[in-house]
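Invent a record, attention on tokens:
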Amino acid sequence: MNDPDAQNIQAISDWLIEKGLRQTPVPAMVAGFCERLVAAGVPLLRVNVSARTMHPLIDSISNVWRRDRTMEARANTFEEQNHERWQGSPLRVIVETMDTRLHRTDLTDPAQTASWKVFQEFRNEGATEHVIRLVGFGVDGKLTNRTGVMMTWLTDRPGGFSDRDIAVLERMMPRLALSVKSTVDHEIAVNLLDTYLGHQAGAAILGGSYRRGTFRIIPAAILFADLRGFSGLSDRLDREAMADLLNACFDAMVTPIRRHGGEVLKFLGDGLLAVFDREGHEDADICFGALHAAVAACEGVALVPVPGEAGTTMELDVALHLGEVYYGNVGAADRLDFTVLGPAVNEAARIEALCGELDTNPLISHSFARAARHCSPHIAPAGRHVLRGLAEPVELFTLRQGALEEA
């Protein structure tokens, strides 16, 4: 490799290190990298850099650069793995075998392009050579053959990439992969924390709130929900049917909660606790959203059939309350959990326990009903009731039958 190439590689490497340290978004990193390679004389037509995300719905993100300087970031879902295009892609074979060798295909040779339809498509676009390499990652200094960054390179130069081009690419691909990994590892951490703990807890941990006893007080509308009769039902179902049923019910609950601005703080067996943060908002607006979410959750769960019981559907008990939630770290010194505490949480749980006894949903606390001014015409008294742990009966409310439709 001549001196100018060595200088270009060093300059681009320095640029990549800076972008990696700053966790630059991958699309911007790939675009800048490709433009610098082109300026260094590497005849790129199209580049695809893909990395896994550890997201519950998305397997990987493909970052596609084209010489006209267009950039596309495309999510590849797990469902798409069964689609014809992925099944007929050479990338699938590389991923499944974790083959980290460099693969070159002469797109002008019909014998080499016959195996994969996508090669013929690239040839029709004027490409002359296709290069694939999976740069693998490892743990404790050893390759794991489980993760890495997939890269594909296209050129339209007659005769394809030169030996010099390939030498430059082989030197630069591990450097690009390392910088991409810096950003992707952070995104993976965010995705995993959001998936298992929720956005607020995930953001708090990444922001440094991981010490025992650290709590945040959230003034909120509280939604406490529980599937009616699920414990008995789970005794009659096999493991897969029980999991499918629970997932379907949680989908029906969580979707409207998120749509109306709430966040699920905790899954509790066959129930959940969600809050609608009141900071910076009018209580009446927050209660409006929480009430509509509760109605939609009940309606959604009521559409989920009970396995093995034709014509029978699930039921959801929901309580709504207004108060403060203490949300933070408790546990042993080196094994913590983000949890939810406070009198308001206890009261919401005890109100929910009355839903089955009163055969009423949702049940609404006095503080919530008083604040829910936009919904007051639809709210009706449900009597005074004793809650476990409280000396005096409390006044509860519910919705007038058929009064509120999901917005």
